[in-house]
Amino acid sequence: MVTREKSEKGMLKLTVEVSGKVWEEAIEKAYEKNKGKYNIQGFRKGKAPRKVIEKNYGDTVFYDDAFEDVVSSEYAEFLQNNPEIEVADYPKVNIDSMTSDGLKVSLSVNLMPEVELGPIKFKIKKKEPSVSEEEVEQQVKAFVDSQARFVESDKPAEMGDFVNIDFSGSVDGKKFDGGTAEDYRLELGSHSFIDTFEDQLVGLKVGDEKVVKVTFPEKYPAENLAGKLAEFEVKVKKVEKKEARELNDKLISFATEFATVEEYKKDVREKILQTKTNQAEREFENSLIEEVVKQAKVDLPDSMVEHEKHHLIHDFEDRLKYQNIKLDDYLNYIGKSKEDFEKEQLEEAKRTLKTRLVLQKIIKDRKIEITHEEVHSKLHEIADARGTTCEEVEKNLSEYELNYIQNDILMNKLIGYLKSNNE
After folding, report:
1. Contact 95/105 with Cβ under 8 angstroms?
2. 2-112 belongs to CATH 3.30.70.1050
């Protein structure tokens, strides 16, 4: 049985009382679930009677699992029967009594904070993007540079050339992981290697050998190399020099879908403008959201903020793991203390939570909803893009993907509502 106690503002307090009969059933259930974990002499694994296990491991051996099961069940049922109650995090649990005769527990949990919206009226001007001739020329130049050919040369290597090299690196006379390669194609001036490495290859010709000396940065991610002097035995096997191409109709018709330089430049201009227009639209939408969040008042519970902060840090650590980087190594490399990093994440948690709660409040108050027709229309778009049928897309759609589509539609409708209130 769950009883709601008198609670302070923003806090839900409950008392959960479990009778001796229900508590006994929970313990028996825990025994059946976990009996296979215990080895008791004279019994096959999983076949020892409960009383024997309790005698060997203590009368309360199954209490923890029984407690978690029965309290979680009572709490979940209470929330289900009281849908108007929205909790912000997990409850804090205090055991008042736990014996063979029953269980009494006190729960306290933060409620979702009240959101007080400000006036949803804006006067935000969207940027009108433009494209300069210089921007077009820069992109055209980059395209022409990308079409350059590299030809082998017996002349000394210069910055901008490609060299094909064998190298073998060592620190304190010992080779290290990742320090050796053959037929490595390196662009001089690309800064792909440790500072000064590429500089020391300038002037070398095919067949030349040289010992290149470099010092790893003090904050290099690999601790065994950080700050160490390294020597690389390098042999140049090939030098390739850039042979520039001339911008003309012939090059454009050969390398693009356009016939002339002017047609290509026109397309470049249109694409730059489209990119800037899309960016301006995103900035405009973000400005609307930032303004409505700034005008709102939300008193965030500390526990809710802490929970979000830890979630952000954990998510960041997971992304670093994909690159085989530890958080401490990353922070050391960028010169940031863990304390400063956590402060940043704390502020980000507050911003994220407030934004989420404010937008949820607007959606609820303004009754912004998505319809089956809108979801179906989106699925048709996806099907057309994939060259398949809507039925095929729907059949292979995961629950995560469906939720993503629904949230995307909902956010677009919310943004549309905010835009309609911009003067």
Report:
1. yes
2. yes
Phi, psi (rounded to 5 degrees) for 149? -100, 150
Give, in order, the Cα–Cα distances in Å from 187 to each of 119, 160, 242, 392: 57, 6, 11, 47
Give me the phi and psi of 199, to 5 degrees please. Answer: -60, -35
CA atoms of 413 and 415, how far apart (whole Å): 5
What average pLDDT does this structure show over 215-233? 88
For the cut 80, the answer to whether the pLDDT of residue 23 exceeds it is yes
- Of the candidates 116, 115, 117, 120, the one whose C-alpha atom is nearest the C-alpha of residue 419 is 120
Task: Please report how many Cα atoms fall inside a 13 Å half-sphere around the Cα of residue 237, on the Cβ side.
Answer: 11
Q: Where are the domains of the chain?
A: 2-112, 149-243
CA distance 368 to 310: 31
At 7 the pLDDT is 67
Question: Which tokens in the block code for residue 15?
Answer: 């008392």
CATH of 149-243, picked from 3.40.50.620, 3.40.50.1820, 3.10.50.40, 2.40.50.140, is 3.10.50.40
Structure tokens at 269: 């201009």
Separation of alpha carbons 354 and 139, rounded Å: 41
Integer Cα distance of 105 and 15 in angstroms: 6
DSSP symbols for 294-348: HH-EE---HHHHHHHHHHHHHHHHHHHHTTT--HHHHHHHHT--HHHHHHHHHHH
276 pLDDT band, cuts 50/70/90, is very high
* Angular region, 140: left φ>0, alpha ψ -120 to 50, beta rest: alpha
